[in-house]
Amino acid sequence: MDRVVIITGAARGIGYGIGQCFAKTGATLVIADVNLEAARKAAAQLDAEGAKQSMGLACDVTNIQQVQAMVDDAIKRYGRIDVLVNNAGICPFIDGMEMSPAVWQKTMDVNVNGAFYCIQAAAKHMIERGKGGRIVSITSLAENVTGPAQVDYAASKAAMRMLTVGMATRLGKHGITCNCVAPGMILTDMTRHYWEQPGPAEMIKTRVPVGRIGTPTDIGHAVVFLASPEAYYISGITLRVDGGHQAVCN
User: Which residue of 1, 87, 138, 209 sits 20 to 30 Å from the alpha carbon of 182, by its own alpha carbon?
Assistant: First the structure.
């Protein structure tokens, strides 16, 4: 399917896995990341996997000027934006009573403000174009459950969820849907060293009903569905992709 898709924080990890799933549909990808070299490399790799004429660009989502430039560059090159995926995010893992105001603010700036800037900039274009659009934000199970070292992260993901729900009510009349995907435990290059240890690996078998840890493409498949024409009547929801983990926690 010929679509232009912006994915933030997509040079590696879950963002790259989302890109892989869109690449299989023949989409054109805008891979936005704070690391320009990594973004360009990822875009080239994804074209080799089926994407078309993708580009990588630098974007710090906390900088509203860079977000607008990202949107403007995509429109200038491709003429339109069909899908926005808000994936850029951070999780410092610092105890809530030891966390500095600066750390708290940085988490909110990246996870919440960054998503807001991206949604607003992309949606303005979608409204002007008059062809609708799809916005998918990557939250987390932490939007509902948390722990001492994820106070800021959970608060930001809960805020991100309600930001997306609120925008779903605002943008629906323009044919723009807004949804969230909440990943469970996912194996990435950054988390591999932890999840492949004997203890955590064994825990997966007891806490995830399907019996395995998730992959970035597990998340990507869900995002591609929510961005598809078949999902037109789905808006304002969170789709948990966790192998049933939260059902066990509940």
Answer: 1
